[in-house]
Specification:
By secondary structure, the protein is α+β, with helices and mostly antiparallel strands. The protein contains 1 helix and 2 strands.
């Protein structure tokens, strides 16, 4: 049996989804080297609706290495860059 993974809920003072996405992208860009953080699984929720989560990134495995860094609902092929992030 594997050990459970832990989730860190990090409340913010932000009031829009776009601002929250921008912060999540900044955190991923600055802390991406920390292997204990799985940014591909990042979700956002409103403070009073925490069970309704919005996934940010597609996170599909890419050929070779890495995961898709485009938005979860992106059109076209997956990619290793934020191109078309549409924040």
């Amino acid at each position: 049996m594997t050990s459970p993974r832990w989730i860190i809920h990090l409340p913010t003072t932000l009031t829009s989804l776009d601002e929250a996405i921008t912060l999540a992208v900044a955190l991923r860009d600055s802390l991406g080297h920390v292997t204990a953080i799985d940014f591909g699984e990042t979700t956002l929720s409103e403070e009073d609706r925490q069970l309704l989560r919005t996934r940010i990134w597609c996170d599909a495995r890419l050929d070779g290495a890495g995961r898709c860094r485009r938005r979860d609902d992106h059109g076209g092929a997956c990619g290793a860059t934020d191109e078309g992030l549409g924040r």
